[in-house]
Write a structure and sequence with these properties.
By secondary structure, this protein is α+β, with helices and mostly antiparallel strands. 33% of the residues lie in helices and 26% in strands. It has a single domain, classed as 4-Layer Sandwich (Glutamine Phosphoribosylpyrophosphate, subunit 1, domain 1). It has 8 helices and 13 strands. The strands form 2 sheets. It has a 9-stranded mixed beta sheet. A 4-stranded antiparallel beta sheet has the order 7-8-9-10. A hairpin with a 5-residue loop joins strand 2 and strand 3. The structure holds glycine. Glycine binds next to strand 8 and helix 6. Belongs to the Ntn-hydrolase family.
Length: 309
C-alpha cells in the first residue's frame, strides 16, 4: 500500500485574496504529515503533525487565527480517531491551547473518555503538562475585524476579514500507511460570532471525524450544525461500506446532505485501499495530499495540480 496524507483547509466562500495562503498552507501540512509517515511515525503522528501545522497558520480557522465568539474569545474544538481500534479523543470549547488536536489525542490515550469540554479540558491540559498560551494570544487582527463586522451586519462569515457569507474554514487530515492503517483528525475555531459555549461537529466522532481500518477515514468541514445533524463523516463511511468508492461516497453524501438540509460542506476521504475522495459543494475548499514524490492540490471545483516534491 502506498502511504498517503490528505488534508483540507476548510470549505467556504474563500475570497481570491486568501487563495494563495491557503494553498501554501495545505501543501506544507500534507508534506509535514507525509514526512512523519516516511520517517516511521504512525498514522496518528502524521495526522496530528499535519493538523498542528495548520493550527499554527493564521490562514486557517483553527488554533492561532481561529474566529471569535460573541465575547471576542477563541473557543476551539478538535477530534482524532484511529481506525485500527476505533479509539477516539475530542475536546470542545477549549481556550488558550496552541494545538487542540494534540489535546484531543491525549484525551484518547490518557483518559477513559472520548470528549472533554471547556474548563475540564483545560484542567486536563494543565495536568498533562500541555502548555497554555496567554489569554488573547490566539486572537488575530483579522479575526477581531471579522467579529466587529459581524456585529455590525449580522452576517456569519467564513473567511475572516471578508464579506462573504457561508461556512467556516475548519482544518483536517486523513492518513493511511503502508499496512493500510488509517487515522483522521479535525480542528476548528468554529463560527465567527457564535454564542459563547457553542460546541461544533468537529469534536463529534461521526460528524467531523471518523476512521475505521475496515472501511476508510474522513474529515469534514462546513456548517457544523448541519454536518452534525447529518452525521456527515459516518454517512460517507457507510456509503463506502455499501460499495461506493471514496470519491462517489464523498460526493453523493455531500449532495444528499445539501438536498436534505440545504447547506454546503466539504470532506476528504481515504478508503481502506487508499483511494482518495475530495468533495465540496461550497465555492472553494483548499486540499492537498502527498503520495510518493508527488504533491496534489487544488482549491476551486475540478481544479487539480500535481507537482514533484
Ligand atoms: N464545522 C466547524 C464548525 O461549524 O464550527
Amino acid at each position: 500500500m502506498e502511504p498517503i496524507v490528505l488534508v483540507h483547509g476548510g470549505a467556504g466562500d474563500i475570497p481570491d485574496c486568501n487563495v494563495e495562503a491557503k494553498i501554501v498552507g495545505v501543501k506544507k501540512s500534507a508534506k509535514i504529515g507525509y514526512e512523519v509517515l516516511k520517517n516511521g511515525g504512525s498514522v496518528l503522528d502524521a495526522v496530528e503533525a499535519a493538523v498542528k501545522s495548520m493550527e499554527d497558520d493564521e490562514a486557517f480557522n483553527a488554533g492561532f487565527g481561529s474566529v471569535l465568539n460573541l465575547d471576542g474569545e477563541v473557543e476551539m474544538d478538535a477530534s482524532i480517531m484511529l481506525g485500527e481500534t476505533l479509539m477516539s479523543g475530542g475536546v470542545t470549547i477549549v481556550r488558550d491551547i496552541e494545538h487542540p488536536i494534540s489535546l484531543a489525542r491525549l484525551v484518547m490515550e490518557k483518559t477513559p473518555h472520548f470528549t472533554l469540554a471547556g474548563a475540564g479540558a483545560n484542567k486536563f491540559a494543565t495536568e498533562q503538562g500541555v502548555p497554555t498560551v496567554p489569554p488573547g494570544s490566539l486572537v488575530t487582527k483579522s479575526a477581531q475585524q471579522a467579529l466587529d463586522q459581524f456585529k455590525k451586519t449580522g452576517y456569519v462569515r467564513t473567511e475572516i476579514g471578508e464579506k462573504n457569507t457561508g461556512e467556516v474554514g475548519t482544518v483536517g487530515a486523513v492518513a493511511i500507511d503502508s499496512q493500510g492503517r488509517l487515522a483522521a483528525g479535525t480542528s476548528t475555531g468554529g463560527l465567527n460570532g457564535k454564542m459563547v459555549g457553542r460546541s461544533s461537529d468537529t469534536s463529534v466522532i461521526g460528524s467531523g471525524t471518523y476512521a475505521d481500518d475496515d472501511l476508510g477515514a474522513v474529515s469534514t468541514t462546513g456548517h457544523g450544525e448541519t454536518i452534525a445533524r447529518f452525521c456527515l463523516a459516518h454517512t460517507i463511511i457507510k456509503s463506502m461500506e455499501s460499495g461506493r468508492n471514496a470519491e462517489q461516497a464523498t460526493h453523493e453524501s455531500l449532495c444528499k446532505m445539501k438536498a436534505r438540509l440545504n447547506n454546503s460542506a466539504g470532506a476528504i476521504t481515504l478508503s481502506k485501499t487508499g483511494e482518495v475522495g475530495i468533495g465540496f459543494n461550497s465555492n472553494r475548499m483548499a486540499w492537498a495530499y502527498q503520495k510518493g514524490d508527488e504533491i496534489h492540490f487544488g482549491i476551486d471545483p475540478n481544479e487539480k495540480h500535481v507537482e514533484k516534491v
